[in-house]
Amino acid sequence: MFVRRAVWPLQEATNSLSRSECPFLHEPTKVFFRDVYDHVVQIVDMIETMREMVSASLEIYLSSVSFRLNAVMRVLTVITTIFMLLSFIASIYGMNFEHMPELKWEWGYPVALGAMGMVATAMLIGFRRRKWL
Q1: Is the pLDDT reported for residue 91 higher than 80?
Q2: What is the pLDDT of residue 20?
Q3: What Rg do the C-alpha atoms of the chain give, in angstroms?
Q4: N or C: which end of the chain has fewer CB within 10 A?
């Protein structure tokens, strides 16, 4: 950016010096100013090309960062969904009701844990089949 700001005025100055009818400049000197003007135009073009390349590189980098962030967010969403359902099941069994027959069963706790494990496993399998994981 700084080089562009420094070179851009040179383009106008060398152009006006090479085409002016100034009595202090001889005709052979004007030829050299035309050559300098051509070099300055090439430099300005190269600066613009490099600026566009840097801009494109920055866009590619930001796209890759965004892609990685989306992948992380997808995994976190799946984990949250699984634990949300498990929390729902646990909250039902955490209520203080007297008339819940499963609470008095000998195998009630292992059955509830097994059901939670089966639900989590089924959700993981479903997410993998849909290629969300």
Answers
A1: yes
A2: 75
A3: 36
A4: N
Comparing CA positions, the residue from 17, 56, 14, 58 lying closest to residue 37 is: 14
**Residue 86 pLDDT level (bands cut at 50, 70, 90):** confident
Q: Are 112 and 89 in contact (CB under 8 A)?
A: yes
- Six token digits for residue 70: 């989306």
- Report the predicted TM-score, pTM, of the whole model to 2 decimal places: 0.59
- Tokens for 77, please give them: 């969403």
Number of domains the chain contains: 1
Inter-residue contact 57 to 49 (CB < 8 Å): no
Full residue range of the structural domain in which residue 116 is found: 2-129
CATH of the domain at 65: 1.20.58.340
Of the candidates 17, 14, 34, 16, the one whose C-alpha atom is nearest the C-alpha of residue 25 is: 17
Ramachandran angles phi, psi of 28, nearest 5° = -65, -30
